[in-house]
Write a structure and sequence with these properties.
The complex is a heterodimer of chains A (134) and B (287). The two termini of chain A are 23 Å apart. Chain A has 134 residues and is of the alpha+beta class. A four-stranded antiparallel sheet of chain A has the order 1-2-3-4, covered by helices on one side. In chain B, the strands form three sheets. In chain B, strands 4, 6, 7, 9, 14, 15, 16 and 18 form an eight-stranded antiparallel sheet that branches. A seven-stranded antiparallel sheet of chain B has the order 5-8-17-10-11-12-13, with no helix packed on it. Classes of the chains: A alpha+beta (134), B mainly beta (287). At the A-B interface, β1 of A face β5 and β11 of B.
Chain lengths: 134, 287
């Protein structure tokens, strides 16, 4: 089963709001560090079928000291999707990507949105990414 | 130069055989010497890197000598994007640098799909040096293995209990694995050790093969060729952001349709790029 329409709308609103907050922080971070900030997945386990879970905002990559909390980012007390922020440095310049994932009826769905960088193909609609084999 | 020309002059008495100064100057640092016989330039010291690359059907060679950021393609036009800050560490034998992937950070290098890295039913070869820090959850070295139905080909390590082998998988429908050959002859890998893994698809004989450290090939039957899909190519993970490699990769390359057919040339390409364990950067190492 695909992500229900009501959930899609709700998650898109959530993503839009998070993106606005992240954009402000990313601008400051990039000015200071010369690269964008990477945000690890907020949830230890991706939620299923509309359930929610409290995010872990203190985790950070091994090669970056700043977590979601360190940047003053709080996407909410409970999340119905797993949320992360990937960064990239393409030959054409740097950028970052916000992504969300959620399980519905045994299928894992992902939506990503590219920001700033040149690789617009990184913006993807809801896609079934249920693991299959290796 | 004199040593090279002397036998030519003996073989062709009276012919005007002179050193080609342009070639000689260009190749002097590489230890190669060119001579001219009539209007034809002859190479005295070996095959030029570009000529060998053309014969091998080389598409891209990533030396991975950068400290971070985008990685250059030393031969083709497939410069790689750095995802989540791939760092560096000493390369093969401690010479130069290798790309250092940290699985916990979901790091990889990638480029969007384009015809040069696409397969289909063609002779295709790919290779790379891997130095695993850990081996878990099917870590991928190089391939186009996107979200189903856009899986094509993948060089990875099969961590299934009882298997534990470097593997080469291909898909024809983009979802299911059509064939998956294990490097059984070589056996299991150890951590913190360099391995050179070479794999190819032979369209004529309908086979896929894999070799580790220049050893004998293991093979599996596979017809139809890998899917020519829309997946990007990635090093250090699948194109879907999973199957994360944890460790170093160095001197990765991909090629298609070598002169003479892959079945005849694959052992030569494997041995040349393995170089008895030393590896080769393109182009200076290809001499």
């Amino acid at each position: 089963m695909a992500v229900p329409a009501a959930a899609m709308t709700r998650i898109q609103t959530f993503l839009t709001n998070v993106a606005a907050a992240v954009a402000t922080k990313q601008a400051t971070y990039f000015a200071a560090k010369g690269r964008y900030w990477q945000g690890r997945r907020c949830l230890l386990a991706t939620p299923a079928d509309g359930a929610t879970a409290a995010p872990v905002l203190t985790d950070h990559p091994t090669d970056q000291v700043e977590s979601w909390a360190d940047l003053g980012l709080n996407p909410g007390a409970n999340l119905e999707v797993n949320l992360w922020c990937d960064t990239y440095i393409a030959p054409g310049g740097p950028g970052y990507v916000l992504g969300v994932e959620v399980w519905y009826s045994g299928q894992l769905w992902r939506r990503t949105q590219n920001f700033q960088g040149p690789e617009s193909w990184r913006t993807t609609p809801w896609t079934d990414v249920t693991p299959v084999g290796p | 130069v004199a040593d090279l020309i002397r036998p030519l002059r003996g073989a062709y008495p009276g012919a005007a055989i002179e050193p080609d100064s342009t070639i000689r100057n260009q190749l002097a640092l590489l230890g190669q010497v060119g001579v001219r016989y009539g209007g034809v330039k002859l190479l005295g010291g070996g095959e030029l890197p570009a000529a060998r690359a053309a014969r091998y059907g080389l598409v891209s060679a990533w030396n991975l000598d950068e400290a971070s950021g985008a990685r250059a393609d030393s031969f083709g036009a497939n410069a790689l994007t750095d995802n989540n800050t791939v760092t560096s560490n000493p390369g093969i034998g401690g010479v130069g640098t290798a790309a250092q992937f940290t699985a916990a950070n979901t790091e990889s290098l990638s480029i969007a799909d384009n015809p040069s890295v696409s397969s289909g039913d063609v002779d295709l070869w790919l290779c790379g040096w891997g130095y695993p820090d850990t081996l878990a959850a099917f870590p991928a070295m190089i391939g186009k293995w996107g979200t189903p139905p856009s899986r094509e080909y993948l060089l990875y390590y099969d961590t299934t209990g009882g298997v534990n082998k470097f593997s080469f998988a291909v898909s024809t429908d983009g979802t299911n694995t059509a064939a998956d050959v294990k490097a059984s002859t070589f056996g299991s890998a150890s951590l913190a050790t360099w391995y050179f893994v070479f794999a190819y698809h032979d369209k004529v004989n309908d086979l896929i093969k894999i070799s580790v450290n220049g050893g004998a090939f293991d093979s599996a039957v596979f017809s139809g060729g890998p899917l020519d899909g829309a997946s990007g190519l990635a090093l250090g993970g699948s194109s879907a952001g999973s199957l994360k490699w944890d460790g170093r990769l160095d001197n990765c390359a991909i090629g298609k349709s070598p002169v003479g057919g892959i079945a005849a040339v694959a052992p030569e390409i494997r041995d040349y790029l393995y170089k008895a364990g030393a590896g080769r950067d393109y182009p200076l190492g290809w001499t």
